[in-house]
Amino acid sequence: MKFTKLTACILAIATATGAMSALGANSAFSLGFGLQYWDAKDASKFDKDGFGGCNMVARLQADKYLGIDFRLGASGIWDGKTYHVDGQKYESDVTFTCVPVEAGLVLMAPINNSITLYGGPGVGYYHYDLDVEVSRKHGHHYHREWDRHYSLDDDFGWYAVAGLTVRLTTHVSLFGEARYTDTETSLKHDDSVEFDCSGFGGQIGLMFDF
Asked: In the predicted model, what is the mean pLDDT of residues 23-32?
């Protein structure tokens, strides 16, 4: 499965790079920044509903109907708990993060001069990280007792996105989108501990046209 995802990722990025070269000087460039929510399937293992984070979108358009997206994001789950053991008060903090690097094709459908619908598929490389820290309370302060970093497998996955842009000024647009991401990970030295992070998500932000 991972070999298939890797092959698809390489082919998609190669295709996108070739298409960029063919666009020439008449292409348009846009840069977007947004906040996103990602309803990852196994977020419940951390007593959370999903990831929260941000994303950057670099879009190169051949014309008003076709574009190529390059995306870089950072999303995470932060979970903290307080508990007592043998009369001692402890606090645990769990940080589970994902950094996606993605590329995809996007079809544009202008509705009028202000509103454009868009959508398309893409592939990505997803880097995962997991840290757990436990602190014990001494007086009025917590002191770190234990801190461990868990190595996770990175993954080659895919996504599909659908969204719209609403032009606010000549060079600034508001954008909102929904997407589905297919990706998973596991502990590097224990494949039995898996995290399925596939799920639907949404993003809203500003797109700047150059």
From this structure: 73
CB half-sphere exposure, 41, CA atoms < 13 A: 12
20: closest CA among 58, 46, 48? 58
Query: What is the C-alpha to C-alpha distance for residues 33 and 72, in angstroms, rounded to an integer?
Result: 10
- Which residue, 156, 204, 159, 162, is CA-closest to 180? 159
If you search the block for the tokens 């954008």, which residue do you land on? 175
- Written as one letter, the residue type at 148 is R
Q: In what helix (H) or strand (E) does residue 200 lie, and over which residues does it extend?
A: strand 199-209
* Cα–Cα distance, 177 to 105 (Å, whole number): 15
Element (H, E) at 23: helix 2-23
Q: What is the DSSP letter of 111?
A: -
- Are 165 and 207 in contact by the 8 Å Cβ rule? The answer is yes
pLDDT tier for residue 136 given thresholds of 50, 70 and 90: confident
- pTM attached to this predicted model: 0.83
CB 106 within 8 A of CB 71: no
Residue burial 156-171, b: 16+ Cβ < 10 Å; e: rest: bbbbebebbbebeeee
